[in-house]
């Protein structure tokens, strides 16, 4: 039987920004967390065990959101804990830096399958559960990127385009579900010190570019996680259908 009053699903919830959000949300009595992850089972289990409490359960669930067949199981794990209050779509993929002519159709397909189609599938599952609820704080937060605006020329135009799609989806979905009391917001991080830069082939990117930002440093996971946690809270109750930049002024 469900044991918690509010459950939050975080895709990409065991690394980077997603893990930062999980740490901030965990430990509140009556609140459950489901952390979706792909790969690194040891890290996922370790984080779930660290955060799990009898009155605030945390579950790590293997889920590649790029595979639509895996998404329902992620939300079934949430159903087992209680009613869904929030979804944070933090799962995303980035490939090695490349000029546009080096990005082939296979790479486009991989990027869009996770960053757009998978995110949309998670939103669909969340809305189906939230639509008939009566909680005042039913929220979806989509993690986008400042690259959606800047385009990431010479690096990863495909990733930037996928995040622009996330921002458009956020706006459209927010207007569609506002009548149910569901809020949908997009957060656009700038240069943040996470391991994603290594995935792109430039592990020192945040350290190199951080001092060039208006605030003089790269952002941290906590900078972004704090913003997301605030958006999930009643303090942000009149914010929907928009994007929030966490860029240090970039």
Automatic annotation (TrEMBL):
Ketoreductase domain span: 6-194
UniProt keyword list: Oxidoreductase
Highest taxon of source: Bacteria
Family membership noted in the UniProt record: Belongs to the short-chain dehydrogenases/reductases (SDR) family.
Annotated GO MF terms: oxidoreductase activity, acting on the CH-OH group of donors, NAD or NADP as acceptor
Pfam families: adh_short_C2 (PF13561)
Protein name, per record: Glucose-1-dehydrogenase
Gene name per UniProt: scdh1
GO biological process: fatty acid elongation
């Amino acid at each position: 039987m469900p044991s918690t009053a509010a459950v939050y699903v975080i895709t990409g919830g065991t690394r980077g920004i997603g893990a930062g959000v999980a740490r901030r949300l965990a430990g509140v009595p009556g609140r459950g967390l489901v952390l979706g992850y792909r790969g690194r089972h040891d890290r996922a289990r370790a984080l779930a065990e660290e955060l799990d409490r009898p009155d605030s359960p945390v579950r790590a669930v293997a889920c590649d959101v790029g595979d639509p067949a895996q998404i329902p199981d992620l939300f079934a794990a949430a159903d087992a804990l209680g009613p869904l209050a929030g979804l944070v779509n933090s799962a995303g993929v980035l490939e090695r830096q490349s000029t546009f002519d080096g990005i082939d159709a296979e790479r486009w397909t991989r990027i869009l399958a996770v960053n757009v189609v998978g995110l949309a599938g998670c939103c669909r599952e969340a809305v189906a559960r939230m639509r008939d609820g009566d909680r005042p704080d039913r929220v979806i937060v989509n993690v986008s990127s400042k690259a959606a605006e800047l385009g990431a020329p010479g690096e990863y135009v495909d990733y930037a385009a996928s995040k622009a799609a996330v921002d458009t989806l956020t706006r459209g979905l927010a207007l569609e579900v506002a009548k149910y009391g569901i809020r949908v917001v997009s957060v656009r991080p700038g240069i943040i010190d996470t391991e994603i830069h290594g995935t792109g082939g430039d592990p020192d990117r945040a350290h190199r570019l951080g001092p060039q930002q208006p605030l003089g440093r790269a952002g941290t996971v906590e900078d972004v996680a704090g913003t997301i946690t605030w958006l999930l809270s009643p303090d942000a109750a009149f914010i929907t259908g928009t994007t929030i930049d966490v860029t240090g002024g970039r």
